[in-house]
Amino acid sequence: MSNWFQQSIVATGRLPLFCYFVMLIAAFIATRINVRLIRAKVGWFRNVNVGEMHIHHVVFGVVLMLVGGVTLIVSPGSQVGTAVAASVFGVGSALVLDEFALILHLHDVYWEEEGRTSVDAVFIAIAVTGLLLIGLRPLTWDYGTPVNPAALIVANLALAVVTLLKGKIWTGMAGLFVPPMLLVGAVRLARPGSPWAHWFFARRSPRKMARAIHREERWRRPVIKVKIAFQEFLSGRHDLPSTRRGRRHT
Hints:
It contains eleven helices and two strands; from the N terminus they run H-H-E-E-H-H-H-H-H-H-H-H-H.
Protein backbone atom coordinates (compact mmCIF):
# COMPACT_ATOMS: atom_id res chain seq x y z
CA MET A 1 0.00 0.00 0.00
CA SER A 2 2.83 2.41 0.89
CA ASN A 3 4.55 1.67 -2.43
CA TRP A 4 1.31 2.31 -4.31
CA PHE A 5 0.75 5.58 -2.46
CA GLN A 6 4.32 6.72 -3.14
CA GLN A 7 4.24 5.82 -6.83
CA SER A 8 0.65 6.74 -7.74
CA ILE A 9 0.04 9.77 -5.51
CA VAL A 10 3.26 11.38 -4.29
CA ALA A 11 5.47 10.71 -7.33
CA THR A 12 2.79 11.94 -9.74
CA GLY A 13 2.30 15.20 -7.83
CA ARG A 14 -1.26 14.32 -6.79
CA LEU A 15 -0.69 14.54 -3.03
CA PRO A 16 -2.44 17.95 -2.71
CA LEU A 17 -5.41 16.67 -4.73
CA PHE A 18 -5.52 13.49 -2.62
CA CYS A 19 -5.52 15.54 0.60
CA TYR A 20 -8.28 17.75 -0.78
CA PHE A 21 -10.33 14.68 -1.72
CA VAL A 22 -9.94 13.01 1.68
CA MET A 23 -10.68 16.17 3.67
CA LEU A 24 -13.70 17.00 1.49
CA ILE A 25 -15.26 13.63 2.32
CA ALA A 26 -14.20 13.64 5.98
CA ALA A 27 -15.41 17.19 6.61
CA PHE A 28 -18.74 16.54 4.90
CA ILE A 29 -19.37 13.41 6.99
CA ALA A 30 -18.33 15.21 10.19
CA THR A 31 -20.55 18.19 9.33
CA ARG A 32 -23.59 16.02 8.67
CA ILE A 33 -23.06 14.11 11.91
CA ASN A 34 -22.82 17.41 13.77
CA VAL A 35 -25.96 18.96 12.24
CA ARG A 36 -27.98 15.79 12.82
CA LEU A 37 -26.95 15.80 16.47
CA ILE A 38 -27.90 19.48 16.68
CA ARG A 39 -31.28 18.74 15.15
CA ALA A 40 -31.83 15.89 17.60
CA LYS A 41 -30.72 18.18 20.47
CA VAL A 42 -28.16 15.70 21.69
CA GLY A 43 -25.81 16.81 24.48
CA TRP A 44 -23.96 20.07 23.97
CA PHE A 45 -24.37 20.15 20.17
CA ARG A 46 -25.97 23.49 19.35
CA ASN A 47 -26.06 26.04 16.54
CA VAL A 48 -23.53 28.88 16.60
CA ASN A 49 -25.36 32.09 17.45
CA VAL A 50 -24.19 35.65 18.03
CA GLY A 51 -27.05 37.36 19.80
CA GLU A 52 -30.11 36.62 17.65
CA MET A 53 -28.00 35.91 14.53
CA HIS A 54 -27.43 32.29 13.50
CA ILE A 55 -23.97 31.81 11.99
CA HIS A 56 -24.26 29.14 9.27
CA HIS A 57 -21.24 26.90 8.73
CA VAL A 58 -20.95 28.19 5.14
CA VAL A 59 -19.40 31.30 6.74
CA PHE A 60 -16.58 29.24 8.27
CA GLY A 61 -16.26 27.41 4.97
CA VAL A 62 -15.72 30.62 3.03
CA VAL A 63 -13.02 31.72 5.49
CA LEU A 64 -11.23 28.37 5.25
CA MET A 65 -11.43 28.40 1.45
CA LEU A 66 -9.90 31.89 1.40
CA VAL A 67 -7.09 30.80 3.73
CA GLY A 68 -6.42 27.61 1.79
CA GLY A 69 -6.76 29.26 -1.62
CA VAL A 70 -4.47 32.19 -0.85
CA THR A 71 -1.92 29.82 0.69
CA LEU A 72 -1.98 27.72 -2.48
CA ILE A 73 -1.39 30.85 -4.57
CA VAL A 74 1.56 32.12 -2.53
CA SER A 75 2.96 28.66 -1.71
CA PRO A 76 6.68 28.39 -2.61
CA GLY A 77 6.06 25.03 -4.30
CA SER A 78 6.61 22.54 -1.49
CA GLN A 79 4.30 19.57 -2.06
CA VAL A 80 3.82 19.09 1.68
CA GLY A 81 2.89 22.75 2.23
CA THR A 82 0.60 22.65 -0.78
CA ALA A 83 -1.00 19.48 0.58
CA VAL A 84 -1.73 21.19 3.91
CA ALA A 85 -3.29 24.18 2.12
CA ALA A 86 -5.32 21.82 -0.08
CA SER A 87 -6.57 20.05 3.06
CA VAL A 88 -7.76 23.36 4.50
CA PHE A 89 -9.39 24.19 1.16
CA GLY A 90 -11.10 20.77 1.20
CA VAL A 91 -12.60 21.36 4.63
CA GLY A 92 -13.83 24.78 3.55
CA SER A 93 -15.30 23.35 0.35
CA ALA A 94 -17.25 20.74 2.30
CA LEU A 95 -18.72 23.40 4.60
CA VAL A 96 -19.69 25.64 1.69
CA LEU A 97 -21.15 22.89 -0.50
CA ASP A 98 -23.08 21.44 2.44
CA GLU A 99 -25.09 24.67 2.41
CA PHE A 100 -25.05 25.14 -1.35
CA ALA A 101 -28.87 25.08 -1.44
CA LEU A 102 -28.99 28.03 0.97
CA ILE A 103 -26.72 30.01 -1.35
CA LEU A 104 -28.74 28.99 -4.41
CA HIS A 105 -32.12 29.94 -2.92
CA LEU A 106 -30.88 32.73 -0.62
CA HIS A 107 -33.10 31.14 2.01
CA ASP A 108 -32.64 28.57 4.79
CA VAL A 109 -33.89 25.40 3.08
CA TYR A 110 -31.37 23.11 4.79
CA TRP A 111 -33.88 20.48 5.98
CA GLU A 112 -36.44 21.12 3.24
CA GLU A 113 -36.74 19.22 -0.03
CA GLU A 114 -34.66 21.86 -1.81
CA GLY A 115 -31.87 21.17 0.68
CA ARG A 116 -31.07 17.92 -1.13
CA THR A 117 -29.35 20.10 -3.74
CA SER A 118 -26.52 20.58 -1.25
CA VAL A 119 -25.96 16.83 -0.97
CA ASP A 120 -26.04 16.53 -4.78
CA ALA A 121 -23.41 19.28 -5.00
CA VAL A 122 -21.13 17.46 -2.55
CA PHE A 123 -21.57 14.15 -4.40
CA ILE A 124 -20.70 15.84 -7.71
CA ALA A 125 -17.61 17.48 -6.18
CA ILE A 126 -16.44 14.14 -4.77
CA ALA A 127 -17.06 12.35 -8.08
CA VAL A 128 -15.22 14.98 -10.15
CA THR A 129 -12.28 15.08 -7.72
CA GLY A 130 -12.12 11.28 -7.75
CA LEU A 131 -11.95 11.24 -11.55
CA LEU A 132 -9.16 13.83 -11.49
CA LEU A 133 -7.35 11.77 -8.87
CA ILE A 134 -7.26 8.65 -11.05
CA GLY A 135 -5.74 10.69 -13.86
CA LEU A 136 -8.69 11.62 -16.08
CA ARG A 137 -8.84 15.16 -17.43
CA PRO A 138 -11.96 17.04 -18.60
CA LEU A 139 -12.79 17.65 -22.27
CA THR A 140 -9.96 15.49 -23.56
CA TRP A 141 -10.28 12.12 -25.25
CA ASP A 142 -8.12 10.29 -27.77
CA TYR A 143 -10.41 9.05 -30.54
CA GLY A 144 -7.45 7.77 -32.52
CA THR A 145 -8.11 10.26 -35.30
CA PRO A 146 -6.10 13.31 -36.43
CA VAL A 147 -8.58 15.80 -35.00
CA ASN A 148 -7.47 19.28 -33.98
CA PRO A 149 -7.36 19.23 -30.14
CA ALA A 150 -8.92 22.69 -29.88
CA ALA A 151 -11.82 21.68 -32.15
CA LEU A 152 -12.28 18.51 -30.11
CA ILE A 153 -12.48 20.48 -26.86
CA VAL A 154 -15.03 22.91 -28.35
CA ALA A 155 -17.14 20.01 -29.66
CA ASN A 156 -17.04 18.20 -26.31
CA LEU A 157 -17.94 21.40 -24.48
CA ALA A 158 -20.91 22.00 -26.81
CA LEU A 159 -22.15 18.45 -26.23
CA ALA A 160 -21.75 18.96 -22.48
CA VAL A 161 -23.86 22.12 -22.59
CA VAL A 162 -26.62 20.34 -24.54
CA THR A 163 -26.54 17.37 -22.15
CA LEU A 164 -26.79 19.62 -19.08
CA LEU A 165 -29.60 21.67 -20.65
CA LYS A 166 -31.46 18.41 -21.15
CA GLY A 167 -31.38 17.91 -17.38
CA LYS A 168 -28.85 15.07 -17.42
CA ILE A 169 -26.54 16.46 -14.73
CA TRP A 170 -24.62 13.31 -13.85
CA THR A 171 -24.19 12.31 -17.50
CA GLY A 172 -22.97 15.81 -18.31
CA MET A 173 -20.46 15.92 -15.46
CA ALA A 174 -19.12 12.42 -16.09
CA GLY A 175 -19.08 13.12 -19.81
CA LEU A 176 -16.60 15.94 -19.30
CA PHE A 177 -14.09 13.18 -18.48
CA VAL A 178 -15.50 10.44 -20.74
CA PRO A 179 -16.79 12.40 -23.78
CA PRO A 180 -18.54 9.43 -25.49
CA MET A 181 -21.12 9.71 -22.70
CA LEU A 182 -21.89 13.21 -23.96
CA LEU A 183 -22.89 11.83 -27.35
CA VAL A 184 -25.46 9.61 -25.64
CA GLY A 185 -26.68 12.40 -23.36
CA ALA A 186 -26.99 14.95 -26.16
CA VAL A 187 -28.94 12.60 -28.44
CA ARG A 188 -31.34 11.12 -25.89
CA LEU A 189 -34.69 12.66 -25.01
CA ALA A 190 -34.54 15.55 -22.52
CA ARG A 191 -35.99 15.29 -19.03
CA PRO A 192 -39.46 16.92 -18.76
CA GLY A 193 -38.41 19.56 -16.25
CA SER A 194 -35.26 20.60 -18.09
CA PRO A 195 -34.70 23.93 -19.91
CA TRP A 196 -34.42 22.00 -23.22
CA ALA A 197 -37.87 20.44 -22.73
CA HIS A 198 -39.31 23.81 -21.77
CA TRP A 199 -37.93 25.46 -24.88
CA PHE A 200 -38.61 22.75 -27.46
CA PHE A 201 -41.24 20.33 -26.09
CA ALA A 202 -43.72 22.23 -23.93
CA ARG A 203 -45.64 23.82 -26.83
CA ARG A 204 -44.04 22.57 -30.02
CA SER A 205 -44.14 18.82 -29.42
CA PRO A 206 -46.66 17.53 -26.86
CA ARG A 207 -45.93 13.97 -28.00
CA LYS A 208 -42.25 14.27 -27.09
CA MET A 209 -43.17 15.82 -23.75
CA ALA A 210 -45.52 12.92 -23.03
CA ARG A 211 -42.73 10.46 -23.86
CA ALA A 212 -40.33 12.33 -21.61
CA ILE A 213 -42.80 12.31 -18.71
CA HIS A 214 -43.45 8.58 -19.24
CA ARG A 215 -39.74 7.79 -19.16
CA GLU A 216 -39.26 9.97 -16.11
CA GLU A 217 -42.00 8.19 -14.15
CA ARG A 218 -41.13 4.68 -15.27
CA TRP A 219 -37.34 4.68 -15.22
CA ARG A 220 -35.94 7.69 -13.41
CA ARG A 221 -38.31 8.00 -10.43
CA PRO A 222 -37.33 4.59 -8.96
CA VAL A 223 -33.64 5.51 -9.31
CA ILE A 224 -34.29 8.88 -7.65
CA LYS A 225 -36.03 7.15 -4.74
CA VAL A 226 -32.98 4.94 -4.20
CA LYS A 227 -30.69 7.98 -4.42
CA ILE A 228 -32.80 9.91 -1.91
CA ALA A 229 -32.83 6.94 0.48
CA PHE A 230 -29.03 6.76 0.29
CA GLN A 231 -28.70 10.52 0.74
CA GLU A 232 -30.97 10.52 3.79
CA PHE A 233 -29.04 7.63 5.29
CA LEU A 234 -25.89 9.77 5.11
CA SER A 235 -27.22 13.28 5.62
CA GLY A 236 -30.53 13.00 7.46
CA ARG A 237 -34.09 13.48 6.28
CA HIS A 238 -35.04 16.64 4.41
CA ASP A 239 -38.61 16.46 5.66
CA LEU A 240 -39.59 20.01 6.57
CA PRO A 241 -42.35 21.59 4.43
CA SER A 242 -41.01 23.78 1.66
CA THR A 243 -41.09 27.50 2.36
CA ARG A 244 -40.02 28.34 -1.22
CA ARG A 245 -43.18 27.31 -3.06
CA GLY A 246 -45.34 30.22 -4.03
CA ARG A 247 -42.63 32.78 -3.19
CA ARG A 248 -41.46 35.22 -5.83
CA HIS A 249 -38.45 37.49 -5.90
CA THR A 250 -39.14 41.15 -6.42
